Amino acid sequence: AKSNGRGRAEVFDMALRTELEARAKLEADIRAGLADGQFELHYQPVMSVATGSLRSYEALIRWNHPERGLVPPAGFIPPAEESLLICEIGRWVLGTATRQLAGWIWDDPETHRGVTVSVNISARHLASPSLVDEVRQALHESGLEAARLVLEITETALMDEPTADAHLRDLRALGVTVSLDDFGTGYTSIGQLQKLQVDTLKIDQSFLHADDTPTQALVELMVTAAHAFSLDVVAEGVETREQLDRLADIGCELAQGYYLGRPKPARDTVVQAESLS
Ligand code: C2E
Ligand code: CA
Ligand code: CA
Ligand code: CA
Q: What value does the CA radius of gyration of the chain take, rounded to a whole number of Å?
């Protein structure tokens, strides 16, 4: 029995070591990829439901891995969130997205009048003491006005990070807008919305995709409650004309989804914007 126990311990040791090695390799690959220009942002439009005009671009990261090809965020963001590496990625995204929108505004101010760029900020990065300075620096270096930047955060970030509230207050004092992503999937009740340091709610796409009557009633309830607290609402994951019509009926003002536009590389984004306006 004794030798058996040791056998199991060795197997466990091996598995743990393999996992640690895989993680260390991924981290080294991400660092090298950042230095080597392997990451890029794709942009997906957020549109006005009533007028069909462009309101924002959500920046969504992609990794052009030399061997694995185009890696979606699900393949590297969750492991990066386990370490401070997510802050390095976040810093790169902030710098790139602000520079990109500033460039588009410079090239075509008419098409981009009032258009913002939305950047996803992970919980750990929101908790980082340097985030506020990084945002200030990205705005300064790009020349983008603070009002043109939207930070998308999740409920988990607000619940788990004690410093989140103070950082959000500082960020909003800069003039940056804050959006609560994936709303409805976490534990935030509608009553808590009043106290949160956010400007916009993004209703998670799972609510759009379930088309049973109770879920539709929930979406309407979320929109009504958000408006009562003076929050804007974005419906995520709009894939059909019917879904868009329903959002118009219940007074949801903003929408995002494949029906309106897929995430596209930067070089194709402006072409899409011009066809919309
Ligand atoms: P998210 O922030 O909720 O982003 C929306 C995701 O839904 C994107 O997936 C987008 O491509 C997808 N989507 C948009 N419209 C539709 C639709 O109509 N139908 C369906 N089925 N999907 C739609 P993506 O780009 O794979 O990103 C997945 C997640 O990865 C994001 O979810 C976000 O949590 C994270 N992520 C992406 N980019 C970044 C980043 O730069 N930083 C951080 N921290 N996280 C990021
Ligand atoms: Ca135009
Ligand atoms: Ca998002
Ligand atoms: Ca979302």
A: 21
Which pLDDT tens digit goes with each residue over 139-149?
Answer: 999 999 999 99
Ligand 2 centre to CA of 274 (Å) is 5
Structure tokens at 276: 């919309």
265 CB less than 6 Å from ligand 1? Answer: no
Ligand 1 pocket member 161 (CB < 6 A) = no
Examine the predicted complex and report whether its ipTM is higher than 0.85.
Answer: yes
Is ligand 1 within 6 A of the CB of residue 182?
Answer: yes
For a ligand 1 pocket test, name from 43, 58, 60 the mutation site with the most ligand atoms within 8 angstroms of its C-beta.
Answer: 60
**Residue nearest atom 29 in ligand 1 by C-alpha distance:** 73
Question: Of ligand 1's atoms, which has the minimum distance to the CA of residue 182?
Answer: 3
Report the alpha-carbon distance of residue 59 to residue 54 in Å, rounded.
14
**pTM score of the predicted model:** 0.93
Mean pLDDT within 200-207? 96
For residues 234 and 179, the answer to whether their CB atoms sit within 8 Å is yes
Q: How far is CA 19 from the centre of its chain?
A: 28
Nearest CA to ligand 1 atom 7: 237
SS3 (DSSP) at 145: coil
**In the predicted structure, residue 33 carries a pLDDT above the cut 70:** yes
3-class SS at 177?
strand
pLDDT, residue 275, reads 65
Would you say residue 1 has pLDDT above 50?
no
CA distance 234 to 26: 34
Report the pLDDT averaged over residues 262-266. Answer: 96
Q: Considering Cα of 73, then 74, then 79, then 84, what sign does the dihedral take?
A: positive
